[in-house]
Amino acid sequence: MTAIAEQLRLKLGVVGKGGVGKTTVSSLLARAYAERGRHVVAIDTDSNPNLGLSLGLSLAETEAVPVLPRAAVVGTGGTTAAADLIAEYGRPTPAGTTLLSAIKVAAAGAGCTCGGHATVRSLLADALVDVDVTLVDMEAGLEHLSRSGGTLAHADVLLVVCDPTRKSVLTAARTSALAGELGIPHVLGLGNKARGPEDVEFLTAALGAEGITVAGVLPYDPEVAAADRAGDVAPPPLAPAVHAALEEVLAAVEMVHAGPAAGR
Ligand SMILES: Nc1ncnc2c1ncn2[C@@H]1O[C@H](COP(=O)(O)OP(=O)(O)OP(=O)(O)O)[C@@H](O)[C@H]1O
Ligand SMILES: [Mg+2]
């Protein structure tokens, strides 16, 4: 891989409080990168996986995505191995991305999901070398920043999704601190579900007060919520305001990724 290709390669973790829109945002970003011709792998790490639905798969197709076994990743390295891994465990989606499922709780009392978290850590560390954008939709909570040596320890940029509530901002602040301890080079806030300028102001000010730069704020869009309820297979066209906010987020991510690591 050339130095330029290496530089363009982006490993993005999408985190935040429960229900703020991590899966929705992950799918929108994955789609946007795929539309730009990038080779995108989206990884679902939720033990109750549903990223596939947001990427346009049916429920049956989402549930049929095989869980990536730890043994398939350990000791991987090199382009061929990554391609084999994607061919065997990845599933193409109507959004133009490949979906990998890393964690699934198939039965009650089936045990912890540490193995799955370690798998994702290894994937980000060295397995997916020929992929342009690796995007990880994380389960809610902070455990992924401590568990198995930090599931997202090898991410380049962490996007902390926040809805306009104090509690989601508080989660973002805690997340940002843990990310700093793990050595993740960049953390950006991403506001979601803003219903007006006052929500945008709140998110920008509250995240700013925690030292978190806001990459962009996506509006609350009834079409996004309706598509989720309907379980549409084809992702709906984006409203112009959502599209514009996403463009802002992509530009902010690109800017920090191209620059030096934040001194935290
Ligand atoms: N910008 C938006 N406008 C309207 N509705 C939205 C928006 N973003 C997300 N939603 C809705 O909010 C709900 C939660 O979204 P989503 O499942 O993406 O959140 P999450 O953070 O992944 O949740 P979890 O913590 O359970 O994984 C869904 O019904 C989704 O359609
Ligand atoms: Mg989710």
Structural summary, described in words:
This protein has 264 residues and is an alpha/beta fold. It has one domain: Rossmann fold, CATH 3.40.50.300. Helix content is 44%, strand content 17%. Strands 3-4-2-5-1-6-7-8 form an eight-stranded mixed β-sheet, sandwiched between helices. β7, α9 and β8 form a beta-alpha-beta unit. The chain is globular, with a radius of gyration of 17 Å. The two termini are 29 Å apart. The mean pLDDT is 85. Magnesium ion (MG) binds next to α2.
Low-confidence stretches: none
Please identify the top-level CATH class: Alpha Beta
Derived from helix and strand composition plus strand pairing, the structural class reads: alpha/beta
User: What small molecules does this complex bind?
Assistant: adenosine-5'-triphosphate, magnesium ion
The rough form would be described as globular
Q: Spatial order of the strands in the main sheet?
A: 3-4-2-5-1-6-7-8
**Total tally of structural domains:** 1
Q: How many strands, which pairing sense, and closed or not: the largest β-sheet?
A: 8 strands, mixed
- How much of the polypeptide forms β-strand, as a percent range? 15-25%
Give the name of the CATH superfamily: P-loop containing nucleotide triphosphate hydrolases
Distance separating the two termini:
29 Å
CATH-derived topology: Rossmann fold
* Average pLDDT level: 85
CATH arch. level architecture: 3-Layer(aba) Sandwich
